[in-house]
Design a protein that fits this description.
Blueprint (H helix, E strand, L loop, with lengths): L1 E9 L2 E3 L13 E11 L2 E20 L4 E17 L5 E2 L14 E4 L9 E4 L4 E15 L11 E13 L4 E3 L9 E3 L7 E3 L14 E3 L19 E4 L5 H9 L3 H7 L11 E5 L4 E4 L11 E2 L1 H5 L13 E2 L8 E3 L3 E3 L23 E2 L4
Antiparallel strand pairs: 1-2, 1-10, 3-4, 4-5, 4-9, 5-6, 5-8, 5-10, 7-8, 10-15, 11-13, 11-22, 12-14, 16-17, 18-19, 20-21
């Protein structure tokens, strides 16, 4: 995740500096953040944003009967605090945003709650994206501010990939721990071909898994990963996780602090216990932990974009595992996510439950 930071000491007098970037996977950079157009409870957060190796492409699938399109994107959002208080998500306006560099800026609207936007190329192509002087229109009055004095603002971005609607298989046909399969053949992956309810159990043709227990069915209302979704392009880095912690209420951040500095290549270290500020010496390193964060705090994912990966921003312990248990409830695949308001939501760390993405 890349970010830019500016401190607003008066409505139009700016000072501050770019915060250190944390994820260089495709050189995502958000720089030159400034505040403009302050009036009637609104202000524009203007910044330059660029990233490398962007793409949008289409191809024919399923015997050339279906045209499939996918693309990469950047999820951008902002957080603010006033007079050194707690960081909060910035509410965006329904209009007044500016997309540049040939990009589309698509603000997510969850019944009037607008906490971020996807930025992506609108037509086929590939290469670097350079979006200078892009802006988000910030509804700071709705965000609870009467003005912009003594306000710190940070704009952050996470690289994403759009996964088009389509069938896929749960399970790999292997023998992983707690792997999914189509009962009774433990080497046969289970095909998810729609969003209908899925029977789980030891009945021929049902979804089942290695291990004990018998939890199900998975209701139709629970996202299976069949519908189109956005997912993070890369695994979370230690730098991203440090940013996440530093922009939380300190009492909440303490809950998610791994506190394993020096082990398993962890480089996140608590440096200010009062304000709960962490530093990271290997920002691009992968997170090696089951610790996960509340992605509603992390990425401001609106529920209408469920399952955005920010529903639970976490890193699983290992790859290709699947997991269903009475304790952690059901998680069908890593094309799905977990939501605190969903009755099948996970309440604790879980393995990443990979479904092999393959057209039926």
């Amino acid at each position: 995740m890349k970010s830019a930071f500016v401190r607003l000491v008066s409505p139009l007098v700016l000072s501050g500096a770019l915060m250190a970037g944390t994820a260089s996977a495709n050189s995502l950079a958000i720089t030159n953040l400034s505040l403009t157009g302050v009036s009637n409870g609104m202000a524009s957060l203007q910044f330059d944003m660029s990233w490398s190796n962007s793409w949008r492409t289409s191809w024919n699938d399923n015997g050339d009967t279906v045209t499939v399109t996918n693309w990469d994107a950047v999820w951008i959002f902002a957080k603010f605090r006033q007079s050194g208080g707690l960081w909060r998500h910035a509410m965006l306006s329904s209009n007044g945003h500016v997309a540049t560099g040939g990009a589309v800026l698509d603000v997510a609207d969850d019944s009037g709650t607008r906490l971020g936007a996807m930025v992506y190329r609108p037509s086929e192509g590939s290469g670097a994206m350079n979006c200078n002087a892009m802006s988000l229109r910030w509804d700071f009055a709705t965000s609870g501010l009467s003005g912009t004095n003594e306000v710190d603002v940070e704009v952050l971005g996470v690289e994403m990939v759009y996964i088009p609607e389509g069938g896929f298989y749960l399970g790999s046909g292997g023998t992983e721990i707690n792997h999914f399969y189509r009962y009774p053949d433990s080497t046969q992956p289970f095909l998810v071909s729609n969003e209908d309810a899925i029977a789980v159990g030891s009945v021929t043709g049902s979804l089942y898994y290695a291990g004990s227990g018998d939890l199900g069915p998975i209701p139709a209302a629970f996202p299976k990963g069949y519908q189109a979704i956005y997912c993070m392009k890369y695994e979370m880095t230690q730098g991203q996780y440090a940013d996440f912690l530093n922009l939380l209420d300190p009492t909440i951040a303490n809950t998610y602090y791994p506190n394993v500095y020096g082990s398993s290549r962890h480089t996140i270290l608590l440096s200010n216990i009062v304000e709960f500020v962490v530093a990271v010496s290997r920002a691009e390193g992968r997170m090696f932990t089951d610790q996960y964060g509340d992605g509603n705090e992390y990425t401001a994912r609106p529920s209408t974009w469920y399952p955005h990966p920010g529903a639970r921003a976490y890193t699983g312990r290992g790859g290709g595992f699947s997991h269903i248990s009475a304790v952690y409830q059901t998680r069908t695949s890593d094309r799905s996510s977990v939501d605190a308001n969903n009755p099948f939501a996970s309440n604790g760390p879980s393995y990443s439950c990979r479904g092999v993405r393959s057209a039926p």
